[in-house]
Amino acid sequence: MAKLALVLLLFSGMIMQLVSSTIEEPKEVDEWLQKLQHGKERVSRVQFFLHDILSGKNPSAVEVAKASITNKSSTFFGLVNIFDDPLTEGPEPTSKLVGRAQGLYGFDGQQELSLLLAINVVFTTGKFNGSSLTFLGRNAVLQPLREMPIVGGTGAFRLARGFVQIKTHFFNITNGDAIVKYDVVALHY
């Protein structure tokens, strides 16, 4: 029960971070809203690779909760991990860092290996530096190509909507490390 409380506390903190990450003064928000009335919706396409590392001395994803039946489940049902994964331009770990993916995933399938994924993608370079996108949805990890919705964003991605296509580039079955390609199509103002 204590672990569940910790997960809920961390999740609420993540939501608060999302809300407060681009808070501006009321005057600046009013000016932005005025421009929005005359603004044109844009489409941005972004591609990056997420490195979800469970192994080694400095993992980017860690277990925070486990159900009593998780160890007996072939789909890890009930396991929850929290992560702060690097995002790179290419699949190599040495490729240029473009941001961080922060959030959590829970194994939610009893018959099929699938995740409920809540992820904030925070860009740290380029034209979207300081902006973020939020994805929330089901990730059926054994499918070759998955799709999730964009449910919001901050900075350049205020009022964002759209989708992301996800494809596993590399998976180490022994330790769980993965490199995952994300192709983002975001509509925003």
Average predicted local confidence, pLDDT:
90
Query: How many individual β-strands?
Result: 9
Backbone structural class: alpha+beta
User: What is the CA-based Rg, rounded?
Assistant: 17 Å
Largest sheet: 8 strands, antiparallel, barrel
Question: How many helical elements?
Answer: 2
As residue ranges, the low-confidence spans are: none
Distance between the termini: 42 Å
Q: In which order are the strands of the major sheet placed?
A: 1-3-4-5-6-7-8-9
H-E string: HHEEEEEEEEE
Shape: elongated
- Share in helix: 10-25%
Strand content: 35-45%
Descriptive notes:
- With 189 residues, the protein is an alpha+beta fold.
- 17% of the residues lie in helices and 44% in strands.
- It is built from two helices and nine strands, in the order H-H-E-E-E-E-E-E-E-E-E.
- The chain has helices at 2-20, 26-38; strands at residues 42-52, 61-65, 80-88, 97-107, 115-123, 132-139, 146-154, 161-171, 178-188.
- The model has no long low-confidence stretch (mean pLDDT 90).
Tags for this model:
17% helix; eight-stranded antiparallel β-barrel; alpha+beta; elongated; 44% strand; 189 residues
What's this, in brief?
The protein is of the alpha+beta class. It has 2 helices and 9 strands.
Task: Summarize the helices and strands and which ones pair or pack.
Blueprint lengths: L1 H19 L5 H13 L3 E11 L8 E5 L14 E9 L8 E11 L7 E9 L8 E8 L6 E9 L6 E11 L6 E11 L1
Antiparallel strand pairs: 1-3, 1-9, 2-3, 3-4, 4-5, 5-6, 6-7, 7-8, 8-9
